[in-house]
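Hello K.,

You asked for the raw outputs rather than the summary table, so here they are, unedited. I folded two proteins back to back in the same session to keep the settings identical. This is the first:
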Amino acid sequence: MKNLNKRIAVVGATGAVGRVFLELLENNFSGKKDLHLLASKKSEGKLISCGDQQFEVKDLSTFDFSLVDIAFFSAGAEISGEFAPKALSQGCTVIDNSSKFRREEDIPLIIPEVNGDVLKQINDPIIISNPNCSTAQLLVALKPIHDLFEITRVDVVTFQAVSGSGQNAIDELINQTKQSLNNESTKNEVYGAQIAFNVIPAGNLEENDYTDEEMKISHETKKILDEKINISATTVRVPVVYGHSIAAHVKTNKKINLPNLHRAFETQTGLEKYSEKDFLSPNPLEHAEGKDPVSVGRIRADLWEDDRVNIWIVADNLRKGAALNSLQIMERIMEK
């Protein structure tokens, strides 16, 4: 992370993503005046550390956004819908991690390694949207394939960690695991079914029988990478705390050249390639949790067609899927 010379607010500073923001921001501030941590009224006055300093949480509802240059929002779509326009009206650029603005045509949806050049064409202040966590890691891996062979269709299955649902989901997995091992009854509060020792659909069902998580991947891929790409997703929640995994089957217009693809993966910014011979890598526990890069492995030519390839992708959903991607957006803005 580069040295920062911006005044920054973190909305949702007490949440799971907020804590990762602060971890990534450590040692980048010269004084407390540069960083403002915002949350609901009930968290006002709470002290949170960032680097060797402590910051007092402020009430979001009364905060004056003219005091900061950039605000990171990670407190859900409802909060973003209410307070992001307020921040913008007070001259503050908003980088929003919720789903609130992703499908709005006039609001950029950005993965810096994929379509970061879009930011060169915009003027501050503005609202910029951060993609869904699964979309972010998927498209970092798909970009080299698309650049070389022109993707026409992608079929994906995601294996999503519970941290994508917030701290309450992490607590629920831990508590249910303990209860199950002790032969005690479990409580399902975050999800409709037990998540410990189980696999369940991720997201909320929509009218077309796909979940909102599945439709986010489809809509966001088209907006960020290429409108012509057809993509179908099945998203599932797994009993993993940190790190999403994705199995992707990719069809292209051109014949896949695996040596060329391997070289492209190796040079793609933000992507770490593992050898196809390294069967156990990448996995979320060893190669995603607490790490910045998106990892790709299990790179296999299709068994039947020469214009298809199968890949396996893992990444820390709270980093590249949220906090890190937002901070990389800010860096791009600062480079203008």
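The second followed immediately with the same parameters:
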Amino acid sequence: MSLDYSAVPKMPDGRTGAEHILTIESTASEVVRVPMGNGGRMTWHVWDDGAKKPILLLFHGGSGSWIHWIRNVQPLSKHFTIYAADMPGLGDSDPPDDVRDVWSVTHCVEHAMKELLPKDRQFAITGFSFGGMVGGHIATLFPEQLRKLVFVGAGGLKATRKPGPKLRKLLAEMPAETLAAEARRNLEILMFHDPAKVDGVAIHMQILNTTRAKTRSRDMGIAGKLSEVLPRVKTPFTGIWGEFDSTTYPHIQERIDLFRALQPNFEMNVIPGAGHWVAYEAAEAFNERLIKILSP
């Protein structure tokens, strides 16, 4: 059964969310599907103008895809060579062997990275939510090549989280109006602080991403898998969080203390007024801060 996006609001210029996503996607220098060691392939969108800019890998959030970075890839590509991943079992990537095991995901990413990246160059990773959890695991496997790790609202931390309303599963058989309304509700609960910032592009990608997700990232986050591996991460790491991140607020100091216990120079960059999906809701401020963090 195909998804009905007809009730998703259009952009001010009349384009649909799908049309906007295709416009940004068309600016990539290439889209590649790389073997990930288990017989499947992992999809990456690459922005590379051949100028040998510093390499930056973008790992998206749970039940997401590279589209989580749709407001970031073009501005960031002015400063970096961008590799935006679809994590195994999400987006257009094939699933890992075990969709509930973070190491199964990680080893697929590791294999794909070895196939894709220049072996003689360092890189940085910016990981959002679930992508931060995977980034932490990857950091233990590439200690020489990984120069910086940026956690963005990272999941998988054994830290206090304020209870909130439950998200509702989006189903292809839902009427268009219900599908769009439930997607908006989920975004308002989890991803955004300001409901007015939820637009048609965000609603479209929420429907698209979550209805095709196979990897069970939420299970890994609840199990605190990032906290388990963090003591083994020797790469310098820093954080970018939205001030009102629904997975953290009002307990951000607990995260800061957790990180600084391992790396005393850890810096937490808080973006005022933003929620969990800070790279979208406050894209301009996020891009500016990330570029500064990763500057040599």
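The first helix runs from residue 17 to 25.

Happy to rerun anything if the numbers look odd on your end.

Regards,
P.
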